[in-house]
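Please check both lines for our workbook:

___
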Amino acid sequence: MEVRREGDALPPPGTTELTMVERATALPGGGCLRHYWRVSFSRLHSDDTAGPHYLDADRARSHPEVALGSGAGCPTGDYVGTHPDLAPAVAIVELTRLHEWRAGHGAPRYRCTDRTGSRLCATAAGLRRELARVQPWMILREQDEIVMWMGQRGGVVTELRYVPSDHVATATVTRFIPAPF
């Protein structure tokens, strides 16, 4: 089974890339963790042109993903990629924080920059509505900040950045179009 995420590049000629997704497991304290694996194969041909063709595994990479769980168990979709240096439990805590902010509980004051002309920063109410709509697809830590990339993978990025603490006073939102490479 071959699954491509939107925005993924095609593999080089003569190779096949497969994505395999593990079944999610519930984490202690809530949330779910799964890994997806990207495995690249190159085609090796036998000397006999009528003989079988073989695939040889060149590279396998694993990427962790997390999601908020529910009483019904782990979801099948809406997983967020995490950087391997960010513990899954920390990523779950920060996704829970985002969920609470979206519900209007303890939301910070936002500083906003829009490099796309979408008017994201035009009003505070419009910014809050948009942050409630866009889905995160990556969460990582850069030095002392949590960074979430939201929107459509491979498209316009809405970045949320803040220093985690018991009460986050200010968060920075930046909307931009990523470089095409």
